Amino acid sequence: MARHDGLYSFGADAVLMELAGDPGGLQHRLSLELQENAAIQLRVRARISTLDQGVPPAMQLKDIEDEFRSLLWSAIPDLLMPDFAPLDERLLECGNRVGDF
User: Fold this and answer.
1) pLDDT per residue over 16-58, tens digit each?
2) Which of 37, 39, 36, 15 lies closest to 27 in space, CA to CA?
3) In contact, 11 and 37? CB cutoff 8 Å
4) What is the SS3 string spanning the chain?
């Protein structure tokens, strides 16, 4: 249990079930776990620092949302699915049917 407690307090609790494996593999897995934890902590700190700046104004949020919609519904599909037929705006969509289907 002391090994388990040590790993848990060290921030490597994800490898607790792998203690029976070979020592070299465990050491590699432990190193990866610690690197992943460090990356998560950096992302959290970056996110917290942006939250400290306050909420962007409504106009800026609208610009971000417009850009997101443009990327999601236009730019990305155009790049990844160039052979898809364009959307037929006359197509009727209901709760249980689309067009004549």
Assistant:
1) 555 566 777 777 777 777 788 888 888 888 888 777 676 777 8
2) 15
3) yes
4) CHHHHHHHHHCCHHHHHHCCCCHHHHHHHHHHHHHHHHHHHHHHHHHHHHHCCCCCCHHHHHHHHHHHHHHHHHHHHHHHCCCCCCCCCCCCECCCCECCC
